[in-house]
Amino acid sequence: MTKATEQTNPLREGLSTRAVPQPCAIVIFGATGDLTHRKLIPALYNLAADGELPPAVTVIGFARRPKSDDDFRKELAETTKQFSRQDVREDIWKTFSQSHFYHQSEFEDESGYQSLAKRLDKIDEERGTRGNRLFYFAAAPEQFEPILKNLEAAGLNKAKEGSWARVIIEKPFGRDLASAQELNRVVFGAFAENQTYRIDHFLGKETAQNILVLRFANAIFEPIWNARYIDHVQITAAETLGVEGRAGYYETAGALRDMVQNHLLQLLCLVAMEAPTDLSADSIRDEKVKVVRSLHHYRADEIAELVVRGQYIRGAINAKNVPGYREEEKVDPKSETETYGALRLRIDNWRWSEVPIYLRVGKRLPKSATEISVHFKKAPMVLFNRDSTEHDQNVLVIRIQPDEGISLRMMAKIPGTSLRIEPVKMDFHYGTSFGKASPEAYERLLLDAMSGDATLFARRDEVEEAWAFIDTIEQAWTGKDAPPLTFYPAGSWGPEEADELLARDGRAWRRL
């Protein structure tokens, strides 16, 4: 691989700064799993249907179960029709499906990788993939190490002159700092950091990408984006779903490891980072790392006061009774795993000094939504604000999902002869404003990986710094003086202790 190949990418003309995706072979390890069928292949189909995917791009599904190419294509056809964001057109699918092949092998079988190498060489000749390889790890985390070692043994981690080889790693990327460092060591043994793409699908969402544009392309926001004008920030990720058959994973993870360490801290970084020197991947990620490093690490005696962990019990979602977490299949009846977490964070730097950041994540809540809300300080208590209420704050809301968009709450006079004011909302929706649906997160991320743009992927130091922060909380929760687990009924907005977390500061969670 040449230095120029990996670091320099041709840019589209005009105002676009996205590199052009290059023809390549995409090898998906774990090709018979849900991720492949629900997300990856539908994403690739949508890119093809929109004319974004180079025709030579070829998919090789790598998995243990024996099946033919035709069997694989038939299965993909059914699930893509079910999960694609747009209707599947038979003429497009017919051409698209012919670029999909199946390679049967055990993940630990070195000979399977040797035969894969030969097959990829043949695909290069027949389909023009130019020796470019993108390896996607959609397998279980315990399979990452044998896959990496076998790729290295087969020489597939090294690209030919003028070509490239990259690897996409799905979360969970470790379960604590030590395991993340070990996994990074194993990955680095086969692939360099600039070949490694750690995926967080939240960063592929259109509104998440728009945070930097909102902040740094609009002169009205950047001057007031600091402790002088911002009262506090809330980041919420709510789900109506329970564990949905994932108890085996969730019992070892919990809400903090599953969502806060990656998704929510990544969103926080975009909200809190300083302006990068340019739009290159490392310039942006350098600033994000500074945010994580600036997070105040809790002392053991602070965690009980500033962090709430909860678990849902039996309740109702949309008028339907649902079991409690401990009643779910494959869950320990005495489980201490949290399904809800609320945190009061502090960023120890000049911009955010004394501005509390409240994070909450939970399962079996009344509504599924992810949003960021920036609450500005109230105007002086004179003139119109003598009878101030909690509604007098200006609030900027960035909706990550669903209904991606941005809204701003401000005060306005009610029409009439008397002087009465009420909050009004200026609202922007991606779907209606631009006349087309936003692409799915995996569409953008796969395209970026094919283009060599790592901006929306986590870097090694980002991951390790995030785990270092989370580990202090996890260790306190498992120690002898661990604060007790709290409980909340399914269908509620979480335990009362989470409300008290903000009430002590004279604040309240924003109603979604």
Summarize the structure.
The protein is of the alpha/beta class. The chain has helices at residues 3-7, 34-49, 69-83, 90-97, 110-127, 144-153, 177-190, 206-216, 247-272, 281-294, 300-306, 430-433, 441-451, 460-478, 496-503; strands spanning 25-29, 58-63, 100-104, 133-137, 165-169, 196-198, 230-238, 307-313, 315-317, 320-322, 340-345, 357-362, 369-376, 395-401, 405-413, 421-429, 486-489. It has a nine-stranded mixed β-sheet, sandwiched between helices.
Outline the low-pLDDT stretches.
1-16
Count of distinct strands: 17
Report the sheet-strand fraction. Answer: 15-25%
Radius of gyration: 24 Å
Number of domains: 2
| CATH superfamily label of the largest domain | Dihydrodipicolinate Reductase, domain 2
Helix content: 25-40%
* CATH topology (level 3) name of the largest domain: Dihydrodipicolinate Reductase, domain 2
Oligomer: single chain
User: What is the 3D shape?
Assistant: globular
CATH class of the largest domain equals Alpha Beta
Q: How does CATH name the architecture of the largest domain?
A: 2-Layer Sandwich
Could you walk me through the main structural features you see in this protein, from its secondary elements to its overall organization?
With 512 residues, the protein is of the alpha/beta class. Helix content is 36%, strand content 20%. Strands 16-15-14-13-7-12-11-8-17 form a 9-stranded mixed β-sheet, with helices on both faces. The protein has a 6-stranded parallel β-sheet with strand order 3-2-1-4-5-6, sandwiched between helices. The chain is globular, with a radius of gyration of 24 Å. Mean pLDDT is 88; it is low at 1-16.
